[in-house]
Design goal:
This protein is of the alpha/beta class and 371 residues long. The chain has two domains: 233 residues, 4-Layer Sandwich (Purple Acid Phosphatase, chain A, domain 2); 124 residues, no CATH class. The protein contains ten helices and 15 strands. It has a six-stranded mixed sheet. A six-stranded mixed sheet has the order 5-6-7-8-10-9, with no helix packed on it. Helix 7 packs antiparallel against helix 9 and helix 9 runs antiparallel to helix 10.
Length: 371
């Protein structure tokens, strides 16, 4: 009978200063994706493996974050399926020893959870290796060299692994050291990749904008008689994203307003997420104000701006100043600012135009047409 092993990469609970937005994002994925998957496959899942960096902070754990992590692993423990948690470098208090680490202190008494924190542990064809540092390097390398296990699970720095972009790891364990194994599964580097017999699973979900370049998720190993017959990737962030990028240009169709039938679709996409707006042109200040007010109505956690307008001195400076001024400002204030800047020597003209605009604006709110 085919059995399944679930393999999860780096989780980093408590990322971004224990951001509630990230904790809610991680909870949403757990409740809507991970737990339902386990429920549907419960009869054939024989174990679950977490490849390190459960927590983001090494030296302290926020109580709110701790509560969220305990909620997650309380649920995992309740399934009664054997769970292996491998210590990562973010899980240890000291850099040169794993002696004090957060997962052992929290999960040691959990009935179905084994924390791999000091030396490798073997289980049939599998060997689980904790984060290697000065205190355990000799013993870990010796046990990995002598084991008859076919499959290694760890949190390794392996030479030649891809880091960010085209940069590759030029330190750590030489990849040839693992040649004798059929497969090596590792956490640590967040870019999902496979080379030779080595598979870096990547982080489980988005943790930074670098993670936008590829879909994140977890792996399912299908095994028969202890042998891996198939490796399946289960994508998560093709549906659940916390980072977005919007390119703004004057001629593009604006975001929908709150009365539009597709507003709710956009709101669900951007709500509580981190949005970067890349501005290619911003000559029509009223269109910009409309775009900004509609984006803010979708309640993102953060909006940051990148000015990619033409770099022609005065024009660019005015755009940057306008962007800075109009953040978190309603449309009427934006128009008033624009008129003041455009007609600095004609306050009466500003007043006249602004009063007329206010009248039109109020009428448009009362009779707004879906766009």
């Amino acid at each position: 009978m085919t059995k399944k092993t679930l393999v999860f990469g780096d989780m980093h609970f408590g990322i971004r200063g224990d951001s509630k937005h990230f904790l809610d994002y991680q909870k949403k994925i757990s409740e809507e994706m991970i737990f339902p998957f386990i429920d549907q496959n419960f009869q054939v899942i024989e174990k679950m493996i977490f490849l390190g960096d459960i927590f983001d902070k090494r030296r302290q754990i926020n109580v709110f974050t701790l509560g969220k992590v305990k909620d997650f692993f309380d649920k995992i423990n309740e399934y009664g399926i054997p769970v292996y948690i491998i210590i990562g470098n973010h899980d240890t208090f000291f850099k040169n020893t794993n002696e004090i680490n957060s997962p052992f202190m929290i999960f040691d008494k959990y009935e179905n959870i084994t924390v791999i924190d000091k030396i490798p542990v073997e289980d049939g064809n599998n060997i689980y290796c904790p984060w290697i540092n000065d205190s355990n390097r000799e013993q870990c390398m010796k046990m990995l060299s002598e084991t008859q296990a076919k499959y290694v699970f760890g949190h390794f720095e392996i030479n030649n692994a891809q880091l960010v972009g085209n940069t590759r790891c030029d330190f750590g364990i030489d990849d040839s050291f693992f040649n004798k194994f059929k497969y090596v599964f590792s956490g640590h580097f967040h870019f999902r990749q496979a080379f030779k017999n080595i598979l870096y699973t990547g982080c489980l979900w988005e943790l930074s904008r670098d993670d936008m370049i590829q879909t994140k998720g977890f792996f399912v190993l299908e095994k028969e008689n202890g042998e891996i017959k198939n490796i399946e990737f289960v994508p998560i962030t093709d549906k659940y994203k916390i980072f977005h990028t919007i390119t703004y240009e004057d001629e593009l169709k604006p975001l929908p307003n709150e009365k539009s039938p597709n507003f709710e679709e956009f709101r669900k996409k951007y709500e509580n997420t981190f949005v970067k707006v890349i501005i290619k042109s911003c000559k029509n200040k009223v269109l910009w104000a409309k775009f900004l007010s509609r984006l803010e109505a979708m309640s993102p956690a953060e909006i940051v701006f990148v000015d990619n307008t033409e770099d022609n001195s005065e024009g660019k400076d005015s755009v940057e100043e306008f962007i800075k001024h109009t953040q978190n400002t309603d449309l009427l204030d934006v128009v008033k600012y624009y008129l003041d800047e455009s007609f600095k020597d004609s306050p009466e003209k500003v007043k006249e135009i602004f009063e007329e605009f206010k009248k039109i604006y109020q009428e448009s709110l009362e009779n707004e047409v879906n766009e």
